[in-house]
Amino acid sequence: MKTGDQVVQELPWKWNTQGTIFLIGGLGFMFDAWDVTLNGFLIPLVGAEWGLSPGARGWVGTSNLIGMAVGAIVWGWIADTIGRRRAFSLTLLMFSLFSVAGAASPDFVTFCVFRFLAGVGLGGCIPVDYALVGEFTPAKVRGKVLTAMDVWWPIGATLCGVVSAGLIVATGSWRMLLLVMVLPALLLFWVRRSVPESPMYLVRKGRGEEARAVIDALVRRTGATAEPWVLPEPAPKAKLSPRALGGQLRDLWRFSAGITSASWALFLTVFLVYYGALTWLPSILISQGYGNYAAFMVTTLMTAIGIVGVLVSAWLVDVVGRKWVIGASGPLAALSLVLFAYQLDIDFAAKAWITAFGFLIELTIPALYAYVSELYPTELRASGFGWASTVSRIGAGFVPLIFGSLLWPHLGLPMTFAVIGVLLLLASLWMAVAAPETKGRELDEIGAQPSAQGAS
């Protein structure tokens, strides 16, 4: 007899059922993209208002990204402990409150503190959203759906560019760039309260009556044939404590050192490349003589082409597999940045290479999100993704600071991007031998055999 989580993974996909979860989860992801992209626009504007040095300006992005690093691990832990549904809503509420506070900051230090706290709230969106959406999605379409989730990222980044460029022309105030995000984010917080708890989470926690209500409703709404199913043995109850958090980290490495190290290495290097470009591109272009509006719009072009990249990635992951998409597109994206930096003085070539980067990196990132969210069993899924995301946010969080004060001034742009690109290539090679392919496999089937590494 099937278990409840097997029933959920074998249901037909319906837009009015699982698709609703995809849309609501994706909108939260959109705000994550909007806020990260906004760092690049805030750096020159905040720096000019408070007369900051290039090194000090890096704290605009660093404070926010480090907050997201903390949020990714804390909210992933909370989601695995108290449930996806409550964490799903509270992440956006925290982000909204501290974004308003950031817009009212009287000085740069206060501004950085509030950007950090807003980042803590928003940093939980990605691990929580991916865990929830993945656990509602049937196995046969899970790769496409989780990869397609990333289409919300270039949409959010592009909206940020268009709205920010328009607001700068209309008001000239960076504070309005923060405030404009808050109203739709609060509206989404309200909508998220209607989302049911993850059925796989309820099953694993032994909450039988709630699990049956959610699963039976899914069967009815998707038109699937009702059949008997049983609850598996519940996972041990987890407690919210620092000791439990440390135990969770040990569990990830005990589950598979190869999978965990490959996940961390990929997240770190992919986002070193991406955040390095996204955060500093407006400043790089302004240093080349572009005005604020023009620099913002070139950045917007880079993010907009990523929408096409995500759609191509969603198709490719189930054709050639997650690992091939990540391993090929990531290093090529880094190479396009190096070529952009070498030809920065040639206007058409620079724009062509940065557009190529926007396309290629959005082949990589959605495939990476889908891949890592599939590698762990249900009881570790949100926290496994959250820890990997935390590593990337910590590493990438220092990119704005290190990039502006050390790498760019001393190595130059081409060599800076080349060094980071080599690290990404090495991480891709490690993935090839240390982690399994997940294409077409049920979630906990993958987690049941963590030692099955290499291409499969």
UniProtKB/TrEMBL annotation:
Keyword Repeat among UniProt keywords: no
Highest rank taxon of the organism: Bacteria
UniProt KW rRNA processing keyword: no
A Pfam family it matches: Sugar_tr
Cell location: Cell membrane
Residue spans crossing the bilayer: 21-46, 58-78, 87-104, 116-133, 145-168, 174-191, 252-275, 295-317, 324-344, 350-372, 384-408, 414-433
Matches recorded under Gene3D superfamilies: MFS general substrate transporter like domains
Domain Major facilitator superfamily (MFS) profile: from-to ranges: 21-439
Keywords from the named record: Membrane, Transmembrane, Transmembrane helix, Transport
SUPFAM superfamilies: MFS general substrate transporter
Membrane topology of the entry: Multi-pass membrane protein
PROSITE patterns tied to this protein: MFS, SUGAR_TRANSPORT_1, SUGAR_TRANSPORT_2
CDD domains in UniProt: MFS_SV2_like
PANTHER family: SYNAPTIC VESICLE GLYCOPROTEIN 2
Protein name per the record: MFS transporter
Species of origin: Saccharopolyspora erythraea (Streptomyces erythraeus)
